[in-house]
Amino acid sequence: MAEIVVEHVQKSFGNFLAVRDSSFVVNDGEFVCLLGPSGCGKTTTLRMIAGLELPTSGRILLDGQDVTTQSASGRDIAFVFQMFALYPHLNVRSNIAFPLESQGVKPTEIKQRVEQAAATLRIQHLLNKSVSGLSGGDRQRVALGRAIVRHPKAFLMDEPLGALDAEFRHLMCGELRSIHNRLKATTVYVTHDQAEAMSMADQIAIMNQGTIEQLASPQEIYDQPASLFVAGFIGFPAMNLIPCTASVGAGESSAEHVLINGTAVPIGRRIPIIDDPQCVIGLRPEHICLSDQAPLRAKVYGTEYLGTNQIVTLVLNDDRTFLKARVRSELDVHAGDQVGIGFTAEKISLFSSRDGRSVALAPVAG
Amino acid sequence: MADFRFESVTKSFGTVQAIQNLCLSARDGDFIVLLGPTGAGKTSTLRLIAGLETVDNGRIFIGNTDVTHIGPAERDVTFVFQQYSLYPHLSVFDNLAFPLRSPLRNFTPVYIQQKVTEVATLLQIQDKLDSKATQLSGGQMQRVAIGRALVRSPQVALMDEPLSSLDAKLRADLRIELKRIQSELGTTVLYVTHDQIEAMTLATKIGVLDHGKLAQFGTPREIYADPCSAYVATRLGSPPINLLPRSFFPQVSAPAQAQTIGARTENIIINHSKAGSGVGRIDWIEHLGDVNHLHIELSHPQHGNCGLVVLMEPGSGFHVNDSVDIDFMKPLFFDDAGRRIAS
After folding, report:
1. CB contact (8 A) between residue B289 and residue A235
2. What is the model's pLDDT at position B329?
3. Inter-CA distances, B293 with A96, A199, A219, B70, B313, Å
4. Between chains, do B289 and A219 touch, taking CB under 8 Å as contact?
5. Which of A13, A166, A269, A350 has the most CB atoms less than 10 A away?
6. pTM above the 0.95 mark?
7. Mean pLDDT of all residues in chain A?
8. What is the mean pLDDT of residues A51-67?
9. Residue A90 DSSP label
10. Which pairing describes strands A65-66 and B205-210: parallel, antiparallel, or unpaired?
11. CA distance A171 to A168
12. Given B197, B287, B313, which is nearest A198 (Cβ)?
């Protein structure tokens, strides 16, 4: 087991800068997700850690040792791909045993380690089956078995669940996390699916255009997104992002309210205004409430009953700012209703209009 | 725009009984969603009312007309498929106008112009009317396909998973649009999906199908809160309802025949118990931001293990490996055949 340190790593392909000056640490035993849209540099980062790509500059340390220029096979890291690359002519046992056989491990030890890996993955009953008859999930379990049987220093996984259907993917997330809890192996996991990252990771690194925008725990990222990009990427329905103006009185240099469509809304803290009063507030759907007294008015555009709660889509009086609120499913609300909307002030995130970075953080839920 | 009803309809394909004694009626302006897994008979039901299949037994009415034995064209229904089947060589305007120019109808060009513009405005594609259909994005193409189905005010608009080929965000946006357009036009819709979110958010009534039989028919809220069987209970709700062996919870007062306790994830109360004394142990906490899913493992000396999922606000002070006691609000009880028992 090992700590992975990525130090000022850059990677270009021709003129294209895939990863720019990226630095982060994956602690021993931690499960870190690299999350971002296609082309953000997450797979390139993973491939550099694996030794499948050489960084243009910067260093990669594995367990304190500089492995930047070491070959993939010398790094003692296991890689799990999206497409389960199994040997179709071998049975499950032989597929899992393969990496040990090629290392020249003794047959009795191979048998024992294969059975141990199969027990961890709960696939003992499949050991003597042919891989060609297996379901997608079982194939991916076998591919994982082949990775864990080696007892590598770290696991790198590139969208290993991407080929499975949604329901099964969620089930496998739980399984992967529980395997991780048993093995406590350092894991770097690449995905573009925020739900996968939120449900499994200890830490999430959100990447955009080759840069890590934020590295933090799932709850921190949810409660305190560091930028507009992160705010929009995490959460479903997405965080409501509303352009507004900080309300600064004459002779004051700070604000406690913002103006949305001319209506003053408290933001639960006092923020210094350096030069530009333009900003964007970010609000999660569960932090908007409908109340008759609230001065900010909106029309209900549609409601979506989900059982545990309902999502209400609202449109402000400017007819173009849409908001989504998550409210109790018992609340009696219909399309066309005129309502007032209130915000949980202390949960509001605030972003600069200029660079999209967060300017005053909302507190994180315990 | 009309009501419709199925009266004891059956349909077999060879030895497979696709639809068994289906009785279902919709009022004018209803948005009916048929929900069920693959092979439940959803698409067969749709094809029967469209006239693309003929019934073995029973009758189908649209409005006051028995349409059981008349051809698809005379039924005055429209069909939206999963794949947007637009005419690629025609403009958006001509695609939308196509059904209105049918020789069966005798509409003036002025009327067609007005009707197409009206629907395009509702679909928010009025600026795309001159584009070729192939120049549109996937979401826009499906809007046009839906628009074409609604433009000629059919008796019933039939839709077979029309949103399933779109990505998650677009699907969520179009869901709201579709609901808004349908309620503004007052069109009667029969819509097929295996996606429970679509069913809950779009439907005025959901018909839950199970192996060709209508298991339950009611509003989304009725079906969610008051399912008639364990099968129906698991169709709605994400994460799904917990179905737990009654034997694990001897302290819960339940009817004598109850074999299974159905507990919605939001209707479970958990409390910290003194280490080791609780009935459950927290195995995994799944963070979703707005809410956490606590995965709890229960073990019983005689009956083995089972798991359940509980919804919890973030920051509620529970951790992995905590030992917890479990109690239920509004539990549902099911007998050994999965039928609901009144509590």
Report:
1. yes
2. 94
3. 33, 9, 13, 52, 9
4. yes
5. A350
6. no
7. 91
8. 95
9. S
10. unpaired
11. 5
12. B287
In three-state secondary structure terms, B175 is helix
- How is residue B173 written in tokens? 């946006």
CB contact under 8 A, A307 and B236: yes
Phi, psi of B44 (to 5 degrees): -60, -40
Of the listed ranges A24-33, A188-197, B117-126, the least confidently predicted one is: B117-126
Could you tell me the end-to-end alpha-carbon distance of chain B, in angstroms, rounded to an integer? 41
**What is the residue whose two structure tokens read 């080791």?**
B276
The DSSP symbol for B91 reads B
Looking at beta carbons, which residues of chain B come within 8 Å of A174? 284, 286, 295
Q: A289 at the B interface (CB within 8 A)?
A: no
Residues B88 and B134: beta-carbon distance below 8 Å: yes
CB-based contact, A305 to chain B, within 8 Å: yes
Spatial neighbors of A168 by CB under 8 A, at least 6 apart, are A136, A137
- Distance CA(B269)–CA(B130), nearest Å, equals 58
Chain B: residues touching A (Cβ < 8 Å): 168, 172, 175-176, 179-180, 183, 197, 200-201, 220-221, 224, 236-238, 264-266, 283-284, 286-290, 293, 295, 311, 313-317, 320
Contacts of A42 (CB under 8 A, 6+ apart): A34, A35, A36, A190, A192, A207
Query: Are residues A271 and A239 in contact, defined by beta-carbon separation less than 8 angstroms?
Result: no
**Closest by Cβ to A308, choosing from B168, B283, B311:** B311
pLDDT of residue B277: 67
CA-angle at B320, arms to B303 and A182, nearest 5°: 80
Whole-complex ipTM: 0.86
What is the pLDDT confidence band of residue B202, given thresholds at 50, 70 and 90? very high
User: E-assigned strands of A57-128?
Assistant: 57-62, 65-66, 77-80
* Mean pLDDT on A230-235: 94
